[in-house]
Amino acid sequence: MLEINNLSKIFGSLKAVDGVSLKLGRGEIRGLIGPNGSGKSTTMNLISGSLQPSAGDVSLDGVRVEGFPSHRIARLGLVRTFQLTRVYTSGTLLEAVALGVRAAQGSAWNPKRWIPTGENAKINIAAFEALERMGLASRANEPAGNLPGGLRRVLSIATALATRPRILLLDEPLAGLHATEKAEVSTRVEQLRADGISILLVEHDMKSVMRLCDRITVLNFGRVIAEGTPEEIGRHPEVIKAYLGRKRNSDA
Amino acid sequence: MNMLTRLLIAGALAGALGTSAAAEDTIKVGVVQPQAGECAQWGVPITRGVQIWAEEFNANGGIADATGKKHKIEVTGYDNNCYTAGDELNAFRRAILDDKVSFILQTFTPASRQAVAEITTENKVLTTSYGAGYLGPKYPFLIGSVTGSPASYMFLVSHLLESRPEIKRVAIVTADHSFGQAALAYYKAGLAPYLDRAEIVYSQPYDPASTSDMLGLATPVMASNPDLIVELGFTPGQQALFVEAMEQLGYKGLYGSEGWTMGLVTERVPAAEVAGRIFSAYVVDASEPNFSPRVSAFYKTYVEKFGEKEWSALASVAYAAMTTIEAGIQKSSDPTGAGVRDALFASDTVDQPLFGPSRWGGSEIFGANNWLMTPLPVYVTDDKGGVKVTAVVDVAAWWNAHKDAALPALSEGGQVSAK
Amino acid sequence: MSAFRRDLMTVCALGAALVVGGFVGSNYMLGVLVLFGMTSILVLSYRTITTMGGWSFAHIAIMGIGGYSVAILSKPPFGLPVLVATVAGGLFAALFAALLSYPVLRTRQYYFFLSTFAAGEALRQCFIQFREITGGTSGIAFIERPEILPNPSSTLEFLCLVAAVLVLLGIFYASLDASDAGLKIKAVGEDEALSSSIGIDAWALRALAFILGSFGAGIAGGLFATYNGIVSPSDINAMLMFKVVAACVIGGTTRFSGPILGLLFLTLIEEIFRVVPEFVPMIWGVFVIIAILFGQWARGRLMVWRAKNA
Amino acid sequence: MQILLNCLSLTSFYLCFALGLALVFGVMRIINFAHGEFFMIGAYATYLCISTLSPQVGGPVAWAIGAIVAAAVTGLLGLVLHRTMVVPLGDKPLAIFISTLALSYVIQTIVVQIFGPVGLSIAPPMRGVVNFGGAILPASRLVVIGVAVVLAAGLWVFLMRSEAGRRIRAVAQNPRGALLQGIRTEKVGRLTLILGSSIAGICGAAMGPISQISPYMGAGTLWKAFIIIIVGGIGNIWGAVAAAAIFGVLDTLMSQFGAGRFLALTSAAVMLFVLSVKPSGLFGEKE
Asked: Which of B5, C78, C188, C290 sits in a 20 to 30 Å window from B178, CA-based?
């Protein structure tokens, strides 16, 4: 269970994120939307540890984690993907995802980890499962280098999944996908909820957001201007104003 | 960066190694000096000096040993990557093990000599230098064939103190590398006997890498207002810059060093202004005509072959060092390292072709008399930018008279290895 | 596992080639092989550091620590046997790398080379300035050969020792490369942000690679010291550093065979042009430039080929 | 007073070393390891001009021609470097670093073949000494200070005022952002590299008469320039100017008061300290 209380981040004089609070329950899919520059990605970076917050706190199952480096937060079960997709391209898809499985295990300093042990098989099975859940199993042994854009994004989700996270932060997972791929990825993301993984979803594709999310938080100029179920958000005057600029006289 | 480049490499591997076949009775001489890189400005003139020495003999059929048999001399230069001790040893291995040389001329610095002490003694290769630096009873094949550095600094500064009673304050400006350290110790040893009437007012070594600011270096030296400045470690160009900076700061005293490239100095400071004030003493300076006709003939051949701009006093120093070996070869019936060594050490004096009779010495400093103390000519600048001999120091006599005062200064400077 | 086995093969083949070459070759060839063996240890340990994406320019200075440790520890008042001192030298080098990793590993890319370049120079200055311990610019001489050698002064036996140490260290680095830690180090080298986002402690793994690589450099430094019998600040020279970097650049660092072939190529040029040593740096430089530009062009070509028939 | 003048002249030397590199490094985030060699080529170009022309036209004019020739030659080299290395290896700073390192050895060997290994020295075109209340400042050093000040000020005006300058600063702050604004970063990169290289050439020409020029003088200057850039701070040309001043004063005082031989050690120690405290340097902003 993820809990954020009036998180804020100031760059010089700009309050990029200003007192954002949010609670994410087990297995819940929470949308985080807002016009460009509303602080969505900054909030993601603050939660995942890529950026140090200026104020406010982040707690994971009651444990305060704000200010932790991102790898410690990841080990506590909160993993994120990037807006500009980042994927390991030197090896095959399986090897890329296997790194996700290995990532959380053991400390680098213990010499036992310096010897190639036999548990590669166990790791590869876990990696294969992660690929299967994202529908990439058929391409497991292909070089990850020449995956088309959309599939690279799916692979990055699979890599994050391989670390068996409790909370997954997805940064525009559907961007750059065409209709059929979008539908397929949305259903797979929905299935994740069944395994008890809670998801914070930043996405511009309103149709998918409305369909996928249990609740939605709307940001504008770094502040939360609305929170509620997709239906409430759809009709919320503030949200429409934020998106369409000023409210056009009386209609709508 | 991948398979394609590796194929390229595999192709080039086919280049076979060529090793030269060694002719039978030629005398093979190795010169281990930097042939490339920053220090080539010292190494290349030294190698050329030895090559001209060899050509003089080869021109009339080679050098005759005691039995009258003539041997061609073959000189090969080996690079020691700017006096790096490890590379010095590798160059020696290459020269001794592969090319089977019987004589080697190397630098005098203690580090380089210690690195090759064992291999030269094992293979009986007579290794000489234009100075002593490091010798030892366990290493009979390490010898010093002329007074040379670093001892020449001691004899130069002591000669100046004796011949110029008005000198009261002396500044020693040396670089912080192994040459500089040895020079600092020998300068102090040369001054030790005269400390009752003269004092050392400046002796801070400088960082050789940061000589871009010569004025920053000269200002503290001028602040100690010395009568005599003795230097070691500047390249020829830096020497000229140092003199220019000191003159600009109003210095009127004397300068002393192992050698000055007067061409560069007079470009910056009018010759008349420094006439009679710049002294040098380093084995022999061939550009000065009347010390020894044979050496000035060598100077003409060098300038003819390589041009006046490429001249460096070190070439004549190397030439002089080889003349001691020449004396040994001519007196021995078997021109190998061991044979020549026995001939040279048959008696405790050697009739040196350039300097005349000189005694072996150095036991107090190195524990073995493997260093030929040849008399040391001292030069001073004349008003036309040239140099002329002002005195010839009887090195052995001075050493016997003053060694008790000089030895403590040398051991304090870490230059004494006699047990 | 195949990559791990290929690396092991390369290392054992190199060790065997050194020993066989030693028995067959001429005296001088022995010297070249010993130097090649020791420099290979240096290049392999350097490759381990490059896998984490950092091209350190302090490698040769850190090697100096190994050399000086052997020089100091094998003489009174310590009097350790030379081989023990060599291992201690490796540990000291690793310790220094650990200390250095704090300021240096915080930097990225271009700053990493600059700061390691300057740290190496600072270390070389320490060897010069602390005269009482390191003997200043004339260094420390008369270092013994390892006692366990039946007759220490024989170069052939020393060559066998170098080959043995090379194979041992090679196996260690190969296993590290294929191990869990090794894969993570390469992951950090490929994309640090992604690695830390999925839970890999990037800083710790970069430090691990830097320290373990420096351990190898320390061992190589110790071997150089006992072989040359002397260690001095001038041994730490830019030409050797450039040779190590060039070997990794020309040969490529994906597998062990890359740097070794690169080093062989450079040594061959050095030997062929022995008569005109002043041209060697230029020829090395030209081949490094060709390798980088050609590699870049080839990689572009490879990308296109892969995309065409993906 | 003399110490003050020495500090001033040493600061201007260090500025000469570091200015060109700071510009290129600041804007394009690449390190041109051959920068020292451009400095050296500038010095040799001036040497050629002075030794051939000074009999006809006299020292100062020959030196001026030498400086212009130096700027042109090194500028051209900068262009060639940009075309052959920077463009194909644009986004890989490591590859550029190592290939320029290799290039520096190639240039050194070529210059040795032409001019010989023995260092040469340029007869100082401007003789004489200027007196400031007892302390002296040799004319040729005044030239260096003048050149350093003119270059720094000129660069400042060029960057702040001119159109091309603004484009360079834009690329420096945010290469991608600049690209989006339609700035042709490659053209700006080429201009920067030509500018940086010719600055190195001019500084080589200015420093030629007061130091011994040799094919290997580049390496020493480069090391100092690296230190100044690291301490000065990332991408910040004025940081480099300030760092040059800091080291100018520090090194002069140290050699004045007898710690001359520790110069290299302290410079490296200062650099390592700054790096561990503030990785982006004293005046640089976080990357």
From this structure: C78
C-alpha–C-alpha distance, residues A31 and A172, integer Å: 11
**Partner residues linked to B229 by β-bridges:** B171, B255
* Closest chain C residue to the Cα of D99, Cα to Cα: C289
Per-residue pLDDT, D235: 64
Alpha helical stretches, state H, B207-333: 214-223, 236-248, 262-268, 271-274, 293-306, 313-331
Is B341 found in the same domain as B369?
yes
Is D touching A (3+ C-beta pairs, cut-off 8 A)?
no
Token pair belonging to C210: 């830097």
- Which class for B18: exposed (0-12), middle (13-18), buried (19 or more C-beta within 10 A)? exposed
Q: Please report, for the domain that includes residue B162, its CATH number.
A: 3.40.50.2300
Residue C53 C-alpha, separation from nearest chain D C-alpha, in angstroms: 10
- The minimal CB distance from C202 to the residues A71, A89, A120 is found for A71
Q: Where are the alpha helices (DSSP H) in chain A?
A: 40-48, 70-75, 93-103, 120-133, 149-162, 179-194, 206-212, 230-235, 237-244
Handedness of CA C47, C48, C52, C55 (dihedral sign): negative
How far does the CA of residue B38 sit from the closest CA of chain D (Å)?
6
Answer whether 0.90 is exceeded by the pTM: no
Touching subunits for chain A (3+ Cβ pairs under 8 A): C
Together in a domain, B368 and B391: no
Give the C-alpha separation, C202 to D280, whole Å: 19
Domain membership of residue B253 as a residue range: 151-283+377-412
B216 contacts in D (CB within 8 Å)? 6, 9-10, 251-252, 255-256
* Residue C237 to residue B9, Cβ atoms within 8 A: no
Contact between B393 and B256 (Cβ < 8 Å): no
Q: Are residues B357 and B391 in the same domain?
A: no
Q: Give helix D35-57 / helix D59-81 axis angle, nearest 10°.
A: 150
Give the E-state strand segments of B139-288 in sequence order.
142-149, 169-174, 199-202, 228-232, 254-257, 278-280
Q: Which domain holds residue A169?
A: 2-251
Provide CATH code, domain D2-277.
1.10.3470
Q: What is the pLDDT of residues A53-99, one digit of tens each?
A: 888 888 888 888 888 888 888 888 888 888 888 888 888 888 888 88
Rounded to whole angstroms, the Cα distance separating D219 from A150 reads 49
Q: Which of residues 46-105 of C touch B (CB under 8 A)?
A: none
B2 located within any domain = no
Cα nearest neighbour of C110 on chain D: D93
Residues B271 and B408 in one domain: yes
Confidence of residue A118 (pLDDT cuts 50, 70, 90): low
| Chain C hits for D273, Cβ within 8 Å | 103
Average pLDDT estimate for D57-75: 87
Domains in chain A, number: 1
Cross-chain CB nearest to D88 (options C129, C286, C296): C296
Question: A55 or C218: whose pLDDT is higher?
Answer: C218
Q: Is residue B417 part of a domain?
A: no
Q: Residue D247, CB half-sphere, CA atoms under 13 Å: how many?
A: 33
Same domain for B21 and B93, yes or no, is yes
Q: What are phi and psi of C249, to 5 degrees?
A: -70, -50
Tell me if D265 and C122 make a contact (CB, 8 A cut-off): yes
